[in-house]
Amino acid sequence: MTNASLKALVDRAKQPGLAFGVAGPDESAPLYPQEAACLTTARDARRVEFTLGRLAARRAMRSLGARLGAIPMAPDRSPIWPEGLVGSITHSDGLAVAVAGYSKDWLGLGIDLEPATGLEVDLIDEIARPEERADLGDQRPLAAKRLFSVKEAAYKAQYPITGVLFGFHALRVSWADGAAHYTDHPECAGIMAADRNRILPIRQWCDDGLILSLSAIPR
Fold it and tell me: Strand locations in 93-178, DSSP E?
């Protein structure tokens, strides 16, 4: 993975109403006091990851034209965006990418970055539902990794809306429809019917050893 490769991939993900930011190895930036307070017991690797993510987020906010502000961490480790903004942050192998938009336009945003390497075979059943496993094709481990990534993005986009934790079988991905759907899995029982019927848009780009997945739920 390289910073340049990620920036090229992010350029393909751009769409109206969304702004992206990228940060890479050897970059750093000061944290707001509210952010630094989230790291009092964090290890060095986590501090670096957190700082890169906030740097990417600030670049996304600046690109959006939004006022910069602290993005502290909730007890569940999700980022708390400034009022009026929604967004998502992802990290992988020393790289970070963030997406941001205005809450008047978007209900939720989710982004995920992964190396384009195959998923471990013994994890495939945990990620893919039976009907999804049937569609993985010849490149099964890589296809499963792509499925993992897009489900991660969809989960992150919907979580601020539902506040419900669930596993991978609670979502079914339809690549043809460009959407993820809630299933009848018991873990979805806590989601209100109106939310459970909501379609979660998905998009994904793969190039130069990277997988970038995005879910953007319009208001």
Answer: 95-102, 106-115, 171-174
**Same domain flag for 17 and 39:** yes
Phi, psi dihedral angles at 40 (to 5 degrees):
-60, -30
Cβ-in-10-Å burial (0-12, 13-18, 19+) of 50 comes to buried
Percentage helix, strand, coil for the chain under 3-state DSSP, each rounded to 5: 40, 25, 35
| Owning domain of residue 78 | 3-111
Beta strands in the chain (DSSP E): 19-23, 85-92, 95-102, 106-115, 171-174, 179-182, 200-201, 203-207, 210-218
Residue 96: band (very low, low, confident or very high) from pLDDT cuts 50, 70, 90: very high
pTM for this entry:
0.94
154 and 102 together in one domain? no
Determine the residue type at 70.
A
Average pLDDT over residues 49-62: 96
Q: Sign of the CA dihedral 154, 155, 156, 157?
A: positive
**pLDDT-derived band at 137, boundaries 50, 70, 90:** confident
- With 60 as the cut, is the pLDDT of residue 1 above it? no
